[in-house]
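Data deposition worksheet. Section B asks for the primary sequence of the deposited chain exactly as it was used as input, without tags or linkers unless they were present during the calculation. Section C holds the resulting structure in token form. Section D is free text for depositor observations; keep each observation to a single sentence. Incomplete worksheets are returned to the depositor.
Section A, Depositor: J.P.
Section B:
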Amino acid sequence: MVSFDEERVDEAFVERSMSLQDQADVEMGTSKYLSTRFSTLKPTLTIPPNPIRLLGLLTRKNWLFFAVAMAGWTWDAFDFFTVSLTVTQLAAEFDRTNTDITWGITLVLMVRSIGAIIFGLASDRYGRKWPFVIVNAMFVVIELGTGFCQTFRQFLACRALFGIAMGGLYGNVVATALEDCPLAARGIVSGILQMGYILGYLLATVFARALVDTTSHGWRPLFWFGACPPVLIIAFRLTLPETDTYLNRERVRNASSKATMSTFARELKLAFTNHWLLLVYMVLLLAGLNFQTHGTQDLYPLMLKSQYGFSADDVTITNVVANLGGFAGGVTCGWISDILGRRATLIVTFLVSAALLYPYTFVSSRATAAAGFFEQFFIEGAMGVVPIHLLELSPGSLRTFSIGTAFQLGNLVSSASSTIEATLGERFPLEPTQAGVARYHYGKVICIFTACCLLYNVLVVLIGPEKKGVSLNVEDDGDMKQAVGQDVQVDEVLEKSKMQAGVESK
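Section C:
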């Protein structure tokens, strides 16, 4: 139960945070909007309580929603990295090159947007629960199927289906974890949730060492094992209801004299008509953020091994240290975004990341692990702001669709980043190894490429909107009120629902 003092903290925080909003519902001309881009960056310095006390604001129900979302997102990442961690073994199994196997990774990135659209719309219409269950059930079947693949075509088919399922999860877990989250705790919960991706990678690394090539089945046990935890995650989700935010929205839809599906269709039309430019902006934002993330990470192990001569163990250790920095940064910057604002926090992370690029890519000793830690602290720090920033920007009727589609389209656009860097790297050759293996100056390419991405991101975020502290409740959604028309008084519907719930509880 939340104490009276904690409720006051939450309310005061929200009241002071509202000054950072761009008054999106108020008519504003283009010139006026652009003239406020710098002034709206000024933080209100809304100082929340310490992170431990903030997390204490979450009720038991909030924690359960967060836990199931975090579990789903973490294992989603685990299943994604099973291929990248077994490329050599898969290539030998299917008599293909490593490049052929990486098409399985590219294919996942290409079709994730399909899953985001399908399951995003399903989650916005039918609720968060059952699309989440279906997606995780697909993970079980697909990971098992991948472990039994006998041909390369079967492998690609499984990875394509996995990509659709993976794409359908992100928007759902963000809405599940954050829709009902106390306002003052949104930032830190957002940061922790996003770092489930890094946690999934670290778990995949550990279990790959334990399961791959340790039995007569080679790489297959890793995929078989990957199919098991989603069963538990499904069981966990089945014990939980829908979020209160979604249930209230569904009550308003059902109160309309028109058919529920007809009401939802009008919601979609209004959302696209009124917010299409915002949806485009979200895709552009996520494309840049994913470019900078992939730009600093994808060829980093290759740079350490090929350019600087790191051993396999040194590469692993340095990469793990960098990922730990990323985890710490995501949580910290998510929390800081509740102090500085979403846009200001993002821009700070971009500028500091740019300052750290030189030591990150040009230090050739093991000391580069320190640069890796802090570089990824701010690179992933930016990603820690993403879930709550997208949630607050998204139209209420298209919340999971908007978040998931923007994130996955951004991933699709940035999927060529490693290819771009590898191609550019060939223009900066180094002395080959004694064995005659070609070497390239990947550090220079990573530095230049990421610097360009960071500059793009500064400009995009600078001109973009922010709705920190915005209400996610249906009674504050103008699109919904317009969709149901004058025959439904939203406040009355919700008040009646509360009264009925009170009677039933007695």
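Section D:
Confidence is low (pLDDT under 50) at residues 22-26.
Residues 260-297 form the longest helix (38 residues).
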